[in-house]
Amino acid sequence: DTKLLAALPLAGKHVLVTAGPTHEPIDPVRFIANRSSGKQGYAIAAAAFAAGARVTLVSGPVSLLPPPGVTLVAVETAREMLEAVRHALPADIAVFAAAVADWRVADAGAQKIKKDEGGTPHFMLVENPDILATIARDEAQRPTLVVGFAAETEQVVEHARAKLARKGCDLIVANDVSPQPGGASVMGGDRNRVHLISMNGVETWPDMDKQAVAAALVARLGQLERAKLHI
Ligand code: CTP
Ligand code: CA
């Protein structure tokens, strides 16, 4: 009924969230990674749980505690993240907030590379699977609503629009992660100013803390999911 929907807009839904970076080993002691604190993804998982959803949070290595009530699946690499995401499906809504490393070292060594042997190493990189695009284009497993993020340093909206089309998702949450005057940055920080990009156009939200962005996004996802199901 409408009262329950207002209080718990995601009651009975399964929400899958990816968050944090992935770590791609170079050798047992070194890795390649993107900058990501995981804060925005963890806040979305917490907000979805507060909205009544069952929540699975597939997370790369971060220094955050999992939100109470949320099922955490901890992974390291992009390939592990894809496997964990597949395992967690089906879901009604999937939010891909992770900063997945785009490449991994083709033949990561089992032993630590020593500085004194063979000079400066050269690495062959291979592309990681695109987890968002894989799930968005999977006819059998696609959640009703698939949401991606786009962290950009320039032409934020243009790049995000291209990603929406390329990846086949319903919504892109885009933000500007370029260094700001005064040194404040979205990355690792507590605030975020996002643009919501969908087939229907672009909506720019005011600067908010990451919890507020998460709560507003979750409220919007409840509406969009019901609209997509025509209920
Ligand atoms: N993503 C993913 N798997 C990847 C790369 C990205 O699931 N291997 C997801 C991210 O979680 C995010 C969205 O795709 O939701 C966009 O990520 P982004 O890095 O901005 O896009 P890329 O397609 O990797 O393009 P680029 O890094 O060149 O801007
Ligand atoms: Ca990328």
What does this structure look like?
Its EC number is 4.1.1.36, 6.3.2.5. Its cofactor is FMN; Mg(2+). Keywords: Decarboxylase, Flavoprotein, FMN, Ligase, Lyase, Magnesium, Metal-binding, Multifunctional enzyme. It catalyses: N-[(R)-4-phosphopantothenoyl]-L-cysteine + H(+) = (R)-4'-phosphopantetheine + CO2; (R)-4'-phosphopantothenate + L-cysteine + CTP = N-[(R)-4-phosphopantothenoyl]-L-cysteine + CMP + diphosphate + H(+). Pathway: Cofactor biosynthesis; coenzyme A biosynthesis; CoA from (R)-pantothenate: step 2/5; Cofactor biosynthesis; coenzyme A biosynthesis; CoA from (R)-pantothenate: step 3/5. Helix 2 crosses helix 6. The protein is α/β, with parallel strands linked by helices and 231 residues long. The strands form four sheets. An eight-stranded mixed sheet has the order 5-4-1-6-9-10-12-13, with helices on both faces. It starts with a helix and ends with a helix. The model has no long low-confidence stretch (mean pLDDT 93). Helix content is 29%, strand content 26%. Strand 9, helix 5 and strand 10 form a beta-alpha-beta unit. The protein contains six helices and 14 strands. Bound molecules: cytidine-5'-triphosphate (CTP) and calcium ion.
What distinguishing features does this structure have?
single chain; 231 residues; alpha/beta; eight-stranded mixed beta sheet; two-stranded antiparallel sheet; 14 strands; 26% strand; binds cytidine-5'-triphosphate; binds calcium ion
Mean pLDDT: 93
How much helix, percentage-wise, in residues? 25-40%
Low-confidence stretches: none
Bound molecules: cytidine-5'-triphosphate, calcium ion
- Cα end-to-end separation: 12 Å
Radius of gyration: 18 Å
Report the strand count.
14
Tell me the structural class: alpha/beta
The number of distinct helices, counting runs of at least 4 residues, comes to: 6
Describe the strand arrangement of the main beta sheet, using strand numbers: 5-4-1-6-9-10-12-13
H/E element sequence: HEEEHEEHEEEHEHEEEEEH
- What assembly state would you assign to the polypeptide chains in this entry? single chain
The biggest beta sheet is recorded as: 8 strands, mixed
Strand content: 25-35%
Shape: globular
Region (Phosphopantothenate--cysteine ligase): 15-231
Pathway: Cofactor biosynthesis; coenzyme A biosynthesis; CoA from (R)-pantothenate: step 2/5; Cofactor biosynthesis; coenzyme A biosynthesis; CoA from (R)-pantothenate: step 3/5
Protein name: Coenzyme A biosynthesis bifunctional protein CoaBC
EC number: 4.1.1.36, 6.3.2.5
